[in-house]
Description:
The structure is a single chain. The protein has one domain. By secondary structure, it is an alpha+beta fold. It starts with a strand and ends with a helix. Strands 1, 4, 5, 6, 7, 10 and 11 form a seven-stranded mixed beta sheet that branches. A four-stranded antiparallel beta sheet has the order 2-3-9-8.
Amino acid sequence: xxEIEKRGxxxxxxxxxxxxxxxxxxxxxxxxxxxxxxxxxxxxxxPGAFSKAIGGDILALYDHDxxxxxxxxxSKTLRLSEDNHGLKVExxxxxxxxxxxxxxxxxxxxxxxxxxxxRATKQEWDESGDMPHRTVLEAELYEVTATANPxxxxxxxxxxxxxxxxxxxxxxxxxxxxRTADAAAARRxxxxxxxxxxxxxxGIQAGAS
Length: 209
């Protein structure tokens, strides 16, 4: 099984306070934005990649820390939606130490990025250029995060993802070659049976004459 990968970028996160509610607003992912993952490949997220996932129970965290929950879709304190730009995130910030600290840090500009954790379930690879290109077409989404360090740290997982894709492609090539060989063998067997049958028929006809 493909492991969970984390991605992020300085996509911007804003504060909105209204009716006594504090909400952080930003984008966890932007469509068709090429990002180089370590020295391994260039990745982009296709529009609609999370359309199935956002209906699930997804967490909003502080810095990918499962002990610092800010909201979740099940309780509607986290709202996710897709628009023409990307995966939009709205988090109703709780009145907790983490929530209050994060609100202050975002207002000050110390925390200005968002990130997300996902597992690609449908993807395309193009290795025709100098560096492989990966397009994530569909993915499971586990959490979104507000973070001061929205880099791409999981290059080890990224490398394994690339290697797994190559292994799958190689297995698919071998399977295709086996199917082709099996089909050719089957055609040869049919041709041999037809040839033997024709020889028998000719033998019968020759004896009759």
